[in-house]
Amino acid sequence: MSDIVTFGETMLRLSPPGNERLESATELEVRVGGAESNVAIAASRLGATAAWLSKVPESPLGRRVVSELRSYGIEADVVWSRHGRQGTYYLENAGEPRGSNVVYDRENSAVSTAKAQEFDIERIQNARVFFTTGITPALSTTLRETTANMLKAARQGGTTTAFDFNYRRKLWSPEEARETLTQLFPGIDVLVIAARDARTVLGIEGDPRQLAHRLGSQFDFTTVVVTRGSEGAVGWHDSVVHEQGAYETDTVSPVGTGDAFTGAFLARRLDGDDVPTALEYAAAMAALKRTIPGDAALVTRDELEAVVAEDGQQISR
């Protein structure tokens, strides 16, 4: 039995060195990354037993993804497919005003055809938490149904369901995302959402504290976490909002910061922490992730404890 089971696509990430442009690069760095597996890795670094479910092509690229994730200590329970391709994305790093740029190349990937019946649903029902994100149903109409079915199965098994809204404008429009994701809300216990996404996609106005209250009240979630970038996050639980600041960090790579935050939050909640304490550890994990290249939060518990001990910043009202 796993503490947390996640479901979604993990891609190969290809990046030119330094601030090189893709169109002129002569070499590319290869890494592995995906929101759901990133969350599983972060949770496992804090002692949670974590598994990642997906559908992966039976190819050298698919095997590369699975073997790397397993090397990080999570269980990769995958359906191997002879059809479909390995999804990739390209990342250009740059400072302002150009800024970093992501180019997705994941159409017709193997995971886009994944159906709930292809997986061992008892794995989800026997887990303490089932986690997925709004990225997954954006990938295909099949995955919209699969995501809904997995959330429903988790609920039927008494598993807590956690969901990161994770809107990606390069995958679908705000209107498409709102129509699809709000239909999933009745099956979700814990919602993580960026303040900008609550405003842009759901059309809910207000500061992050108001957003958390309104989301929790309107959609009957057990817990709502609203992230607010460099200002930290707020968490709504039992009609109380807890505010957590962000830790200062020298950023090496911001990719995967939100996933690190979510993984740590879920792991600490599974460990029995209250929401304010879980938010504190989540913010510390996010800060540490920003110092690490790649998508995965390869953080030690000792490093995390040291950051938390140095400067706790939660405020409850």
From TrEMBL:
Q: Give the SUPFAM superfamilies listed for this entry.
A: Ribokinase-like (SSF53613)
GO molecular-function terms, A-Z: kinase activity
Keyword set, alphabetical order: Kinase, Transferase
> Which Gene3D superfamilies did the record assign?
3.40.1190.20
Record InterPro entries: Carb_kinase_PfkB-like, KDG_KDGal_kin_Halo, PfkB_dom, Ribokinase-like
**Pfam families for the chain:** PfkB
What are the residue boundaries of the Carbohydrate kinase PfkB domain, all occurrences included?
A: 1-296
The protein's superkingdom reads: Archaea
The record's comment on protein family reads: Belongs to the carbohydrate kinase PfkB family.
This chain belongs to the protein called: PfkB domain-containing protein
Organism equals Natronolimnohabitans innermongolicus JCM 12255
